[in-house]
């Protein structure tokens, strides 16, 4: 039996949650044929895979009765954002996600670092671009004090991302002195971001995160115009002044046709020793914003000193304190984000282009 015949059958099997076939979703991870025994490793967006398992076995039994399905293994899958322009720029990257905030100081970079580390812990091939050119903080949050290596590819010098905790990372902080301020005009910063996209050897990735600078300026527009994004995640705190700027971020992504995958409310409350909660920055602002824009509230993260110390020490809390309640919340947020990525990819028409000119 040829590879083409195997994929042909799998292309007729739908994921029951996403209502799309396994091949189009990029859920065929690997398969092996030993004599007449076939083993499959597949991705899935569903927790219950009994029907999919049965559909596959029946399909092969009808088409190739001599073939025995020995094992079908299902693991959490992330589908592929199908877009010709993305394929041209990032042929080996399935999805590109912007982690954004309208306002600085809401913990966006901390969230980006922990989401990337969480995805890597779950076995996904993960990358992270520190797109905050003027205030790069990802090197500190991952405890990286080295410069990226250079490799020649077809006569052109390209950078190799630095890998830590299973995450491939690139930041302007790797290339400039730690005590030097990046004093660049907008076009120079935008040019640096383009280089991180085109002049870095990323390899195969399920998700490439962009830790965006706060606001709605040149970097955001450059990214939206250069690369068809799978979607954006907006980080906010519950207080109204943060929500006001977060709304501007939502409207910016809407204007450039980038779907918002969800809202993350950071610093939601402080858990007092007796179990009561103190809502220092207000209450349920992220939930109200998600309801206003009919998008997903991915999660609410309490204030905890260990999150801050983990970032200062270069050890994201999901790595350093995996049993902490906040780490478990971040892990659940990553699960919710995987669902939203799969949903938006399933709903997106093939060959649609999410980039418009500004």
What does this structure look like?
Helix 2 (50-63) links the parallel strand 4 and strand 5 (68-76). The protein has helices at 3-10, 50-63, 84-89, 108-121, 138-141, 186-198, 218-226, 240-255, 285-293, 305-312, 317-320, 325-347, and strands at 14-15, 20-21, 28-34, 37-44, 68-76, 96-100, 126-130, 150-153, 156-159, 162-164, 167-171, 207-211, 231-236, 260-271, 277-278, 297-303. It has 2 domains: 3-76, GMP Synthetase, Chain A, domain 3 (2-Layer Sandwich); 84-347, Rossmann fold, CATH 3.40.50. It has 358 residues and is α/β, with parallel strands linked by helices. The longest helix has 23 residues, at 325-347.
Which features characterize this protein?
alpha/beta, GMP Synthetase, Chain A, domain 3, Rossmann fold, 2 domains, three-stranded mixed β-sheet, 12 helices, disordered C terminus
Q: Summarize model confidence as the mean pLDDT.
A: 87
Helix share, percent: 25-40%
CATH architecture of the largest domain: 3-Layer(aba) Sandwich
Per CATH, what is the topology of the largest domain?
A: Rossmann fold
SSE topology:
Elements: H1 3-10, E1 14-15, E2 20-21, E3 28-34, E4 37-44, H2 50-63, E5 68-76, H3 84-89, E6 96-100, H4 108-121, E7 126-130, H5 138-141, E8 150-153, E9 156-159, E10 162-164, E11 167-171, H6 186-198, E12 207-211, H7 218-226, E13 231-236, H8 240-255, E14 260-271, E15 277-278, H9 285-293, E16 297-303, H10 305-312, H11 317-320, H12 325-347
Parallel strand pairs: 4-5, 6-12, 6-13, 7-11, 7-12, 13-14, 14-16
Antiparallel strand pairs: 1-2, 3-4, 8-9, 10-11, 14-15
């Amino acid at each position: 039996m040829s590879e083409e015949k195997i994929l042909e059958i799998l292309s007729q099997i739908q994921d029951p949650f996403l209502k799309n076939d396994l091949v189009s979703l990029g859920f065929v991870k690997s398969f092996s044929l030993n004599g007449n025994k076939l083993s499959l490793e597949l991705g899935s967006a569903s927790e219950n895979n009994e029907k999919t398992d049965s559909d596959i076995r029946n399909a092969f039994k009808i088409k190739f009765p001599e073939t025995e399905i020995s094992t079908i293994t299902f693991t959490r899958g992330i589908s592929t954002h199908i877009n010709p322009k993305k394929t041209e720029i990032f042929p080996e990257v399935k999805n590109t996600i912007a982690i954004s905030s309208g306002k600085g100081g809401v913990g966006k970079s901390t969230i980006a670092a922990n989401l990337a580390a969480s995805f890597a812990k779950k076995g996904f091939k993960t990358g992270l671009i520190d797109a905050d050119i003027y205030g790069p903080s990802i090197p500190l949050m991952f405890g990286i004090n080295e410069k990226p290596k250079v490799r020649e590819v077809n006569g052109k010098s390209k950078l190799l991302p630095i890998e830590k905790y299973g995450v491939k990372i690139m930041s302007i902080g790797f290339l400039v002195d730690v005590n030097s301020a990046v004093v660049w005009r907008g076009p120079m910063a935008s040019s640096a971001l383009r280089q991180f996209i085109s002049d870095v050897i990323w390899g195969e990735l399920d998700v490439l995160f962009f830790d965006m600078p706060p606001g709605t300026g040149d970097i955001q527009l450059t990214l939206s115009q250069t690369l068809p994004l799978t979607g954006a995640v907006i980080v906010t705190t519950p207080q109204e002044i943060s929500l006001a700027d977060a709304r501007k971020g939502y409207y910016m992504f809407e204007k450039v046709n980038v779907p918002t995958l969800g809202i993350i409310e950071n610093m939601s409350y402080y858990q007092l020793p007796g179990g009561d909660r103190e809502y220092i920055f207000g209450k349920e602002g992220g939930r109200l914003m998600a309801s206003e824009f009919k998008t997903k509230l991915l999660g609410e993260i309490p204030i905890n000193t260990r999150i801050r110390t983990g970032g200062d020490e270069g050890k994201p809390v999901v790595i350093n304190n995996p049993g902490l309640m906040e780490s478990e919340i971040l892990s659940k947020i990553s699960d919710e984000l995987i669902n939203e990525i799969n949903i938006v990819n399933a709903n997106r028409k093939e060959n649609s282009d999410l980039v418009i000119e500004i």
